[in-house]
Automatic annotation (TrEMBL):
Pfam families tied to this protein: Phytase-like
Region: Disordered, residue numbers: 29-49, 202-221
Species this protein is from: Mycolicibacterium poriferae
Highest taxon, organism lineage: Bacteria
Protein name: Phytase-like domain-containing protein
InterPro entries recorded: Mesenchyme-surface_protein, Phytase-like_dom, Quino_amine_DH_bsu, WD40/YVTN_repeat-like_dom_sf
Length: 792
């Protein structure tokens, strides 16, 4: 990943991948004469999932609202601000969210789901103390219950309260001492009472007698608080429900003498379902009487076919054995079954979700490896969490869509919410995957308006990836504003996912960190791409453009002397006579090279850059490569140390003479502190060079994401680093910022690859950085006929 140096093991978050390549003169007229570019015996994968649902049967993203835009006047833009748990007023128009990082709650008007409007925040300092932290919120009638942790790090003496705040003027009307440290809150469907999980959480740095750091028991134990909501809010009070230690021990819970309630949900009968995450258990309580009717263990699960090694490779041959589920969020399907998101904590986490019979505690269905596979299949696998808890399902909500009970399960680490039809609790059916900004935790259905708001708790101002409210609408009436068509060229908003991988032998092809694209000279409806070293070893991936979404259906390992190699592939160009040219970025200048690969993936030749050019490079190197007849063009991302500021280099390599010549490219300018602009792709098209240029900004700050047209030079270029290159004039061919904004998501920083396929259409792809310093969403855009998309 150009411009970053995060360690010696592999080139940082890797990737600014890129490139792509359109073979000059390639058209449908000559493709039948072209040889097979990749090995003909490469197996084609197929997708077991139909992602292409009709508009009326899916959610459409309508808006992504970064909550730093809702900060108080005077707060630094770079200050951390998150949206963790959210609720909505009874009219469905005002979302209220907790911001534990900034110790406040926020208000956002979603009356128009396409244009959320921040309505400001309420600091907990105004309610009590500047060190107080909100843990949850729940709106009822004209007030919001704000659950507040006042423990302040004194784990042995936990404390907290719930403040009742009038929404209209944001003034407190009552406060209730909770007698411990609270976590989740839920309101009964009839609005008659609230339930609060009193966690009394452990100190992860404390060591109990005879245990290890972070172990239980660490008293005091947790409990449940119930608040009757009858009468005026200033008369409300709490009643405590304790749990029988022996009953919990008999049920098989871990360390039952120190129970830690985590999450609550209430069914239509007024029964409260509560998880004990660290204790790996579930309790059922009669909310109106406080009677504990059932406690059962969440049990353990063995899962195969998952990646369990953080080694830079998506290796799905791993497994976990007899691992405690340790559920976090819980929800009711009807009145007889509960669903848990099995995030795990100190001892467990099974990377999926489970449906239990609420009466018997028996498992009626478990996700197994399917949740992890979903992350891999959609390019959202996070290698940095492979050894821990993988996608880490944490948040969960149950709603009803057109009479169909639906489970919404959030992946905290892979940044998505998966949608399932749970009409048959013994056989849930996957329906859709929704991308989010990092750390989705609050999953808030608004059924009265067919809306869904997902709040994210991770905020990285330095990387420009900000915590947000992600707004979705269900049904075709939201399609025009939020994702009704796979092709942006046809006037719709691209759906997600726009590219997925198929399965080989029951496992999806692993991918992510794309950016390199190339047309297939032998097939007008195929492209080639490659992962960079975020996911090694190097592989060439084939894309079938006739599928919706586009389907990665082949993978070709790159080998050198029979051994797989890890390369930071930033560019790829398919050769008309078979095989590929790869543009490989090095840790330092001398590591940059062109790698010529045969159709079977074997390395035929490595071409290094001239020594003086390599020595004049900084941390960024080759980003794009394109075959042009007997020559190969490359784009270097940034200026050489010997060149004027703002002038990057385009290189032309002639294999027959083993010679290089260089030309200049004038980069756009930026006035944003810490930003820089560089090149990410090059291609030959219609007698010109096409060059992709981008800044490092994303979200609302994104400014420069564009394809420029550069005339092929008639004169020879310079041959050394010390000679000033001729700067080739450029003209704007397409501003890609509107295309990225059209997804209604968080505008991606790394738009890095494009290609004109043999079918004549222009395709653009973003590099998701392997989810490092990015939200992980890959946007693969079909921008329609290149002749139109590139301004004629």
């Amino acid at each position: 990943m150009a411009g970053t140096n995060r360690g010696t093991a592999r080139r940082a978050a890797t990737a600014v991948a890129i490139t792509a390549v359109v073979v000059a003169g390639c058209s449908t007229d000559n493709q039948d004469d072209a040889g097979d570019t990749a090995a003909p015996d490469t197996p084609r994968a197929t997708s077991p999932i139909d992602f292409d649902l009709p508009a009326a049967q899916r959610y459409h993203r309508t808006a992504t609202y970064p909550v730093y835009l809702n900060k108080p006047e005077g707060d630094s833009v770079d200050a951390e601000t998150v949206a963790e748990i959210s609720t909505v007023t009874p009219d469905g128009n005002t979302v209220i969210y907790t911001d534990a990082a900034a110790k406040r709650i926020g208000f956002v008007d979603v009356a128009d789901p396409v244009n959320p409007v921040g309505q400001g925040t309420l600091s907990l300092e105004e309610l009590g103390n500047a060190d107080d932290q909100p843990t949850s919120v729940a709106a009822v009638a004209d007030v919001v219950l704000v659950v507040i942790d006042t423990t302040g790090g004194d784990f042995a003496n936990p404390s907290g309260r719930v403040d009742i705040v009038r929404v209209s003027d944001r003034t407190p009307v009552h406060s209730i001492d909770l007698g411990g440290q609270p976590d989740s809150i839920a309101i009964s469907p009839d609005g008659s009472f609230a339930a609060i999980a009193m966690e009394n959480q452990r100190d992860e740095e404390a060591t109990p007698p005879g245990g290890e750091e972070g172990d239980l028991p660490q008293p005091p134990t947790g409990f449940l608080q119930l608040i009757d909501l009858a009468g005026e809010p200033n008369t409300w009070s709490a009643r405590r429900v304790d749990f029988d230690v022996e009953a919990a021990r008999s049920a098989g819970l871990d360390t039952p003498e120190d129970l830690e309630p985590e999450y609550v949900s209430i069914n239509s009968r007024g029964q409260v379902a509560l998880t004990f995450q660290e204790n790996n258990g579930v309790a059922i309580i009669e909310g109106r009487t406080g009677e504990v009717t059932n406690i059962f263990s969440a049990g353990s699960e063995s899962v195969e076919g998952i990646d369990t090694a953080e080694d830079g490779t998506i290796d799905q041959s791993g497994s976990i054995s007899d691992t405690p589920r340790e559920p976090d969020a819980i929800g009711w399907v009807g009145d007889d079954h509960v669903v848990t998101a099995n995030e795990g904590d100190w001892k467990g986490g099974t990377r999926g979700w489970t449906i239990f019979d609420a009466t018997t505690g028996e498992v009626v269905w478990d996700a197994g490896n399917s949740f992890s596979q979903l992350a891999v299949r959609t390019g959202l696998h996070i290698e940095g969490r492979a050894e821990s808890k993988g996608p880490e399902p944490e948040g969960l909500a149950i709603t009803e869509i057109n009479g169909t009970p639906t489970a919404l399960v959030a992946s905290e680490r892979s940044n998505f919410v998966a949608v399932y039809d749970v009409s048959d609790v013994t056989a849930p059916q996957f329906r859709q995957i929704l991308p989010t900004t990092p750390g989705p935790e609050g999953v808030l259905p608004i059924p009265s308006r067919n809306l869904l708001v997902i709040s994210s708790e991770a905020d990285d101002a330095e990387a420009g990836v900000r915590a947000s409210l992600n707004v979705y609408g269900f049904g075709d009436r939201f399609a025009a504003s939020g994702g009704g068509d796979q092709s942006a060229a046809s006037g719709g908003t691209p759906m997600f996912p726009s590219i997925v991988s198929g399965d080989v032998d029951g496992a999806p092809i692993g991918w992510g960190a794309l950016g390199a694209l190339s047309a297939d000279p032998a097939d007008e409806n195929r492209l080639y791409t490659a992962t960079d070293n975020a996911y090694g070893p190097a592989r060439v991936l084939g894309i079938d453009l006739t599928q919706t979404p586009a389907l990665i259906d082949t993978e070709l390992p790159v080998t050198d002397n029979g051994e797989a190699v890890t390369l930071d592939v930033e560019g790829i160009s398919a050769r008309p006579d078979g095989g590929f040219v790869l543009g490989v970025e090095g840790e330092e200048g001398p590591g940059n090279e062109l790698v010529i690969v045969a159709a079977d993936g074997s390395v035929e030749k490595r071409v290094t850059l001239p020594a003086d050019i390599a020595d004049a490079m900084g941390g960024q190197g080759i980003e794009g490569v394109a075959v042009d007849g007997d020559a190969i063009w490359v784009a270097l991302q940034r200026e050489l140390e010997t060149d004027p500021p703002g002038v990057a280099r385009l290189g032309r390599y002639t294999p027959d003479s083993d010679s290089w010549e260089w030309f200049g490219y004038q980069l756009d300018t930026t006035d944003t502190e810490g930003d820089w602009i560089g090149l990410s792709e090059i291609a030959v098209y219609d007698g010109s060079l096409l060059v992709l240029e981008r800044d490092k900004l994303n979200g609302p700050d994104a400014r420069v994401k564009a394809i420029y047209r550069v005339a092929l030079p008639e004169d020879a270029g310079v041959t050394s680093a010390t000679e000033a290159p001729q700067v080739l004039p450029k003209t704007l061919a397409r501003n890609l910022v509107p295309d990225l904004q059209a997804t209604k998501g968080f505008v991606q920083e790394k738009v890095e690859g494009f290609a004109v396929a043999g079918n004549g259409n222009l395709y653009v792809v973003t590099d998701n950085d392997g989810l490092d310093d990015a939200n992980g969403e890959t946007q693969f855009l079909d921008l329609g006929p290149a002749a139109t998309a590139l301004g004629g």
